[in-house]
Amino acid sequence: MTRPTNILEVIPHPPHGSQPPSIFNDVIGPVMRGPSSSHCAAAVRIGRMARDLMAGQLESVLVEFHPSGSLATTHRSQGSDMGLFGGLLGWDATDDRLVDSGDAIRAAGVEIEIRITDYPATHPNTYRMTLAGPAGRHTMTAISTGGGMVEVQEVDGVELSMVGDFHETLAWAEEGIVTDAAAEGLARELRMAPSVEEVRVHRGSSGWLIQVKGRGPLAEATLERVRGEPGVREVRSISPVLPTLSRSGLTVPFLSAEEVLEYNRDRELDLWELAVEYEAARGGTDPAEVLGEMGRIVDLLQASVRQGMDGTEFSDRILGPQAGFFRDRLGEGRLLPGGILDTVIPYVAALMEVKSAMGVIVAAPTAGACGALPGACIGAGHALGMDREALVRGMLAAGLIGIFISARSTFAAEVCGCQAECGAGSGMAAAALVTLMGGTAREALSASSMALQNTLGMICDPVANRVEVPCLGRNVLAATNAFACANMALAGFDAVIPLDEVIDTMDSVGKSLPHQLRCTALGGLSVTPTSQRLQRDLDPGQA
Fold it and tell me: Which among 441, 384, 92, 442 is positioned nearest to 239, based on CA atoms?
């Protein structure tokens, strides 16, 4: 038997192209349903881009996962199939039909085949797809890089990059009909079109693939002009899948904790104010729009907490509703008094239970870690009687910590273990809690550093391939760790190691973990007898 190519020895940092990360793209979001952002929400986005590549006309789809990657063992149970099929149908990540997307895509007449294949790959979350429809056939290779972020890396054998932050147009030109000069001439013409930011000419095996990135779609007249060019056989428009679009000449005021401290030396702004300045520059928007968007997210999170506290039901899960147990036992005086944590802990559980019941949640920074940061921030805020604006400020401060993590490392447990998800969420939550209490930006960074230090080496080993156990407990651990570190920072404790250095350490430690302990269901609690029994019970056809 041929030994599978090991794709897990060297993992590149998540791609951002030439663009810095965005709070609402990379950190606080996507708004979604499903157990995992890197599996389900990312798969929806990959599916939507694949659908656009085929102009919405699909007859068959072959999906290949690498045997050494995480998707080979988790694609069904963690929502990759569900998300991909939904995206191929044109649905978004909050669609309440997602759970039935497998039946729906087959009912639509699309033939689906999933194979585990040993092929060259550089990332554990790699999707290699062959798509066929009435208009022809295309291949596409894409990766999920964590927290719902994706990159299309290859189309029809041509290496390129599409991360969903531009309106993209692809035009195929035939060799022998279109010369090098003609292809470059068409590219020069397209660069002059309104809203176009970048045009690249890729050389393929049978001609050229011209890639156009724009702030908006190409005008129909321009598309017709391209379609009418001799030798151009096909043109496809691919819509963006991210909420914050990119643009050329984009700059941000800082991209690390060290840089933000230097930037803030004479300004003395709070961390949430610095987050507003960053995101306004990144998105090319007014600060009021940044505050408004985070306000909408806070409203959604509060609704999700209420839903979880009321109890959720879903058949394909290990744990039933438990958040209410905490509330009831607390009211009966049967729990150790925990102060603010008596609100935070059930809120964390409530959010995780909504996620596991296919309710709408916010990946913050991931779906697997969706309880820690929001549960800590909103729970502490409610316990202290704070208003909505205070919660918005806390979440913005957390978002900026996430920017620093995203810029230097990853939110993907498949790459760096659970320290990249719950650990990152804990570091972000610590900054949020410091901000709620009126702490300085320096104190918030110190709290984040301590919280991340405390979670180094945390593995990802989901029981029965579900994002529930030990995920719920680790989200609670992340929130309580954030609480302790926030108070330590506010009390003047010295973090010693600067946040940037801790993030770099998290990245190197995570990539040093055995791949069995990075969300593959091949190690840790995943392979205990109880986990295997639960998986047989939940997936009898997969045993």
Answer: 92
